[in-house]
């Protein structure tokens, strides 16, 4: 098998080719453009396999390979765990290492990352964009509150950006520079609010393409926004062989260090997608406020655990419910939690 290792950078790439006989050679640099990649594909035999590093530039390269019909033989490789202890690093060496690793992938599989199909990439981008806009708006709100606090002003209303809050602010005397800054922040806040409405409209428009979103919204605490955030990061259920693998993906499991008789458990591991971890914690925040099995479990945990530890445990439970909903193809059933009544059918959430 002919294998190609490509060290991808913003402007150019270094390419290494390993022939079937084991001969390895490098050439390049190659321009990281559509034309450059198409020229490379024309020169390569159709059976050649290509390995790329996971990166923003690698994302572009994978999309170009997909457009050119070379997606099936492209491998998007997470190189964080490959030769992490090596003391030498340069582009030609990185490309050669990728080509060598790919040539023995049948014996030692590469840590490949999942490259979503176009429809899922579009949903992922729109969901992330909506979250990013919400983060910007929160920063604007915090900045305005800080400016008011700097001048000893404490709003008499809960929402400074509502009608009553704006009327209250108009009556306050502020220095000219601060007043201009506050008015500018209000304009930015209104603009971001309009963009958020558009972003949420885009998410609602794709509901018919992904029936999984409707099932996820039957889970307590997961609504119109969190459902697409979670689903677009998960992508497809086949990526995860079990519920444990899915819970481990956003890094919600506790870390563990063992050596001999020593066993130390620490905080959560934090690998994987930070967005899906955030979404599951937000879902936990919402569900523990109600009257449901998750809220009751949270209160039990709080008797002996800090609030954040208990909340993370609920987020793990929510992740298992997400897996169960998608695995069974049905809606959420509360009977799967706590003590089941006699004769009740086995709940899918426990099957996960």
Quickly describe the structure.
This protein is of the alpha/beta class and 352 residues long. It is 50% helix and 12% strand. It has helices spanning 34-43, 56-67, 91-103, 118-150, 163-170, 176-205, 212-216, 226-234, 243-248, 274-287, 293-302, 307-328, 348-351; strands at 3-8, 12-18, 24-31, 49-53, 74-77, 254-259, 262-268.
Share of residues in helices: 40-55%
Q: Which structural class matches the secondary elements? A: alpha/beta
The gyration radius over C-alpha positions equals 25 Å
* SSE arrangement, N to C: EEEHEHEHHHHHHHEEHHHH
Report the uncertain regions.
Answer: 338-352
Q: In angstroms, what separates the terminal alpha carbons? A: 39 Å
Strand content: 5-15%
Number of strands: 7
Average residue pLDDT: 86
Note the main sheet. Answer: 5 strands, mixed
Total number of domains = 3
Sequence of strands across the biggest β-sheet = 3-2-1-4-5
What's the topology here?
Blueprint: E1 3-8, E2 12-18, E3 24-31, H1 34-43, E4 49-53, H2 56-67, E5 74-77, H3 91-103, H4 118-150, H5 163-170, H6 176-205, H7 212-216, H8 226-234, H9 243-248, E6 254-259, E7 262-268, H10 274-287, H11 293-302, H12 307-328, H13 348-351
Helix pairs in contact: 4-6, 4-8, 8-10, 10-12, 11-12
